[in-house]
Amino acid sequence: MYGIDFGTSNTVVTAGSGGSSRVLDLGEGGVLPSLLYFERDRRASVGHEAMADYTDALLRFKEAGNLYSRFRFFQALKLALKDRYFEGTAIFGEYMSVENLVAIFLREVKRRADLAGGMGSGDDRLVLGRPVQLSDDNATDRFLQDRFAKACRLAGFSHVDFVHEPVAAAVGFIGEKKECVLVFDLGGGTLDISIARMEGSAIRILATAGQDLGGYLLDEDISRARITRHFGSEGKFHTMTGRELSMPRWITDQVASFYALPLADLTRTRKAIRDLVYDARDADKAKLKGLMEFLDKNLAFGLFKEIDEAKIELSTEEKTAIRFEVKPFVAFCEEVTRDDFEALVKPRVDSAMHLVMIALGRAGLDPHDVARVVRVGGSSRVPAFVAMLEGLFPGRVEEGEVFTSIAAGLLEAKERGLVVAP
Question: Which stretches in the chain have pLDDT values below 50?
Answer without folding.
Answer: none
